[in-house]
Amino acid sequence: MDNQLEKFESWMREMFANRQMKEVCYHNLDHTLLIVTKVQELGAYYDLPKEEMENLFFAGWLHDIGYWDGVAEGHEAKGAELAQKCLLEIGLEQARIDRIKAAILATRVPQHPSNIIESIICDADLYHLSSDQFYEQTLLLKKEKELILGEKISLPEWLKGTRNFLNSHHYHTEFALKFFQPGKEKNMKILEDKITEAELKEAKKAKKKAKDKKSDRGIETMFRITSKNHLELSAMADNKANIMISVNSIVISIVVTVLIRKLEEFPNYTIPAILLIATCLSAMVFAVLATRPKVTHGTNTIEDIDKKESNLLYFGNFYDLSLKDYTRGMHSMMEDGDYLYDSMIRDIYYLGKVLAVKYKLLRKSYNIFMFGFVISILSFLIATLFFEPLQY
Questions:
Q1: Does a cis peptide bond (omega within 30 degrees of 0) precede residue 272?
Q2: What residue segments make up the domains of the chain, in order of their start?
Q3: What is the mean pLDDT of the chain?
Q4: Cα separation, 30 vs 11, whole angstroms
């Protein structure tokens, strides 16, 4: 049987080398070898029969082969399924295979072993909780999970999760309680220190990141350019509206002063004249609406400033405030980077909303002028070509 165990070990080493994904950096051959050693150590302590020692040997080698494909979820069941095939090939009877599979399945967390073999494999599998390399091993386990999931895990978050696991875990065998538990308790104290250290580093990193963010000139440039573009677009809209107002005012003046007097002589131009006046008047109204200023009532209070709900960058929000309250609010904004940036964002946002209304009204004005002017000219042509003044 010893020769069979050697062949089995050789075959398992080959399988680990060829089948296991490189991302599995914790549940690998090194971890498996450690568990095989520990189950033999515990089995010898309890002076188990040779067959049970061999069962532990097989279970130690096979307990994590479900990780070969890099899938952590349900790896115990998958490992038991693979163990069934492997152990049948080497000629083990089904009763022994069932006991070995039960030992593999018993390692599923939370562990609930039902006999000494299952208790031994469970305690051996979590031996690292008591080892001197515990912290390095838990970081390696973190790295494996990150590689498999494809996403970073916060170190404080990981260590707190590990602490919760240690608090809920307990060893099952007398051997582990005697020899593993002291090391585990020592590691729990080390873990608390590491959590504090990691949280301090995370806080410093977050503070530095926030400071860098607030001092980033690129952000200031973005706000400056965006505000400038919005103001230039607003000026362009006002110029376009002024052009439309001027043109239509001139057309209406000409029509009223010249054409209206001639309608008695040329009554066939009455409808075209009405169309032209309506077109120009409608286009001018929408152009005036686009340029008409809208100012809020400036009723924001110092309570709004304290709640950071007021935008002091827009005069319509502060012109009713006293100089003292306005100065206080501006100082509050300058001292709080988030409040300042939020105010600038709100300012740009509402500038955009105003621009949207301006350009919608302008578009209506230009559309009315374009189509109405074309229709009016066509009506003048029709009235001239097909209707004599006396026939109208």
A1: no
A2: 1-125, 128-214, 217-391
A3: 84
A4: 15
| Residues in CB range of 11: below 8 A, 6 or more apart | none
Looking at beta carbons, which pairs linking 181-186 to residues 24 or more positions away fall under 8 Å?
Answer: 181/130, 182/130, 183/129, 183/130, 183/131, 183/132, 183/134, 184/129, 184/130
Q: Are 156 and 199 in contact (CB under 8 A)?
A: yes
pLDDT computed for residue 213 by the predictor? 58
Hey, CA dihedral for 334, 340, 341, 345, is it positive or negative?
negative
Is the CATH code 1.10.3210.10 the one for domain 1-125? Answer: yes
Asked if 167 and 191 count as a contact pair (C-beta separation under 8 A), the reply is no
Distance CA 16, CA 10 (A): 10
Closest CA to 355 of 203, 237, 247: 237
Rounded-to-integer distance, Cα 67 and Cα 282, Å: 75
pLDDT digits (tens, 9 = 90+) for 132-155: 999 999 999 999 888 888 888 989
Residue 270: its H or E element: helix 270-291
Contact call for residues 120 and 173 (beta carbons, < 8 A): yes
Compute the average pLDDT of residues 64-76. Answer: 79
Q: Considering only residues 272 and 283, tell me which one the structure prediction assigns the higher pLDDT.
A: 283
Q: How far apart are CA 26 and CA 63, in angstroms?
A: 14
- Asked whether residue 216 carries a pLDDT value surpassing 70, the answer given is no
Q: C-alpha angle with apex 25: 23 to 28, nearest 5 degrees?
A: 115
Comparing 209 with 167, the larger pLDDT belongs to 167
Cβ proximity of 316 and 296 under 8 Å = yes
Q: Span 350-357, mean pLDDT?
A: 83
* Best-predicted range by mean pLDDT (34-48, 76-90, 197-211): 34-48
- Please provide the DSSP assignment of 83-139 as one string: HHHHHHHTT--HHHHHHHHHHHHTTSSSP---SHHHHHHHHHHTGGGGSTTHHHHHH
Q: pLDDT confidence of 215, banded at 50, 70, 90?
A: low
**Do residues 313 and 345 lie in contact, with contact meaning Cβ atoms separated by under 8 Å?**
no
